[in-house]
Amino acid sequence: MTPSSANSATVFTIGHSNLELPDFLVMLEAHHIRTLCDVRSRPRSFRHPQFNREPLEAGLSSAGIRYQFLGDSLGGRPADPRVYHEDGTVDYAARRKAPEFSAGIDRVLECAREANLAVMCAEEDPLQCHRFLMICPTLIERAITPLHIRKGAALESQREAEDRLLALHGLTAFDSASLFPFERAGALEDAIRLQSRDYAFRASPEALESF
């Protein structure tokens, strides 16, 4: 795949999971990724230190891939207490309305117009990550349909991922084979909300008070 033109953008997503850094770089190279946007709020991993910011950035540089940290604006653990539910989970819909979130999306699209770009977090399955549950809905609103890099560098389309999500929540009547395509958008909103209850970051009451 060639880099995006000036009037379009190709945005991939990827989760580093427990990969070794060379294997991760191979997956990026398979899709000609030239910019990696790190959307982890905290760019480090206790269990997988090869994905701490410093070694990751060095490895990417050696492969000719640019590192861009956007965890402050697009991370799944925002510092704004106003975008948390009473139970401490992040309200993704509220976060998407924040000016800094919108600015982060602008930056992603700006970089993606220059070269193939991947949005990275930790989870291998996009359905378990805020990159899908929080970021992708806004990309779609901006007329960008993301592609998800999975195990072995296989690609999962946004449509395929959405259908998996609908199936998880018993909403297969609204999948790609649905006789009710006009109701799909509402079903997806419901499924994202339900999925977020299980996978959105949850802060303790003490942590929320300290924001």
Count all strands and give the number. Answer: 6
Order of helices and strands: EHEHEHHHEHEEHHH
Average pLDDT, rounded to a whole number, is 92
Largest sheet: 6 strands, mixed
CATH architecture: 3-Layer(aba) Sandwich
Enter the CATH topology name. Rossmann fold
Q: Over the alpha carbons, how many angstroms does the gyration radius reach?
A: 17 Å
If helices are DSSP runs of H or I spanning 4 or more residues, what is the number of helices? 9
Q: Numbering strands along the chain, what is their spatial order in the largest sheet?
A: 3-2-4-1-5-6
Helix content: 40-55%
Can you tell me the number of structural domains?
A: 1
**Class based on secondary structure composition and strand pairing:** alpha/beta
- Which term fits the overall shape? globular
Distance from first to last alpha carbon = 43 Å
Percent range for β-strand residues:
5-15%
> For the record, what CATH class applies?
Alpha Beta
Uncertain ranges: 1-7
